[in-house]
Specification:
- The protein has 186 residues and is mostly beta strands.
- The chain has one domain: Tumour Suppressor Smad4, CATH 2.60.200.20.
- Helix content is 8%, strand content 34%.
- The chain has 3 helices and 12 strands, in the order αβαβββββββββββα.
- It has a 7-stranded mixed beta sheet with strand order 2-12-1-11-10-7-8, with no helix packed on it. It has a 5-stranded mixed beta sheet with strand order 4-3-5-6-9, with no helix packed on it.
- The longest helix has 6 residues.
- The relative contact order is 0.22.
- One of its GO terms (cellular component) is cytoplasm.
- Keywords: Cytoplasm, Immunity, Innate immunity.
- It is found in: Cytoplasm.
- Its main location: cytoplasm.
């Protein structure tokens, strides 16, 4: 047997990819303390904290409008399951945190969806979980967005198209209301 065959099986690591955006990031440089170059390991028994207090938070946002501790992420395993999850908890008394439009007040927490958008103030963070098997730690990989993650899009309203292909908006613009007729009526 070769040493390759005897080597232990390499385990995959859960990785949380986080893409950060703020409209003033060019001029205020609030992300200057974040490491966008490489993945960072976070031990499973640690909480990854985000905020402006560098003595408490692992990930520092250099902005006086950010709470000393804005939010935390905790890696855990679900009870009676082999599934590993990340839990997000709002630690700001002043600012609500939204995760895919679910609002979290102070000390509220929830499981982080595998892909979601986290917002507080003018901050937007796209979070994507890449699943792994490691029980000792997870990794974070931070990215910087050039453009807003959330954009207001004006989508045309999705109105049903009738079988005859004539849109009801034509009738409404003429002040007429379409009526349904039974095909068996004379």
């Amino acid at each position: 047997m070769s040493s390759f065959e005897e080597a232990e099986t390499e385990e995959t690591v859960t990785c949380l990819h986080m893409t950060f955006y703020h409209p003033c990031q060019e001029e205020k440089m609030m992300f200057r303390c974040l490491n966008f170059c490489k993945r960072e390991r976070v031990r499973a028994d640690e909480m990854a904290k985000f905020g402006r207090d560098s003595n408490i938070c692992r990930y520092n946002l250099m902005d006086t409008r950010v709470s000393r501790i804005q939010f935390s992420l905790q890696f855990y395993r679900k009870l009676n399951s082999s599934e590993y999850c990340l839990e997000i908890k709002n630690l700001s008394k002043r600012t609500k945190l939204t995760v895919n439009q679910t609002e979290l007040g102070y000390l509220n927490k929830m499981d982080l969806p595998w892909k979601c958008i986290i917002c507080f103030g003018e901050y937007q963070i796209l979070a994507e979980i890449q699943e792994g098997e490691s029980v000792d730690y997870f990794e974070t990989h931070l990215h910087l967005a050039e453009a807003p993650i959330l954009q207001e899009r004006c989508l045309p309203s999705l109105q049903p198209i009738p079988e005859d292909g004539i849109s009801t908006s034509i009738f409404l613009s003429q002040g007429k209301i379409p009526t349904e007729i039974d095909e068996n009526e004379p």
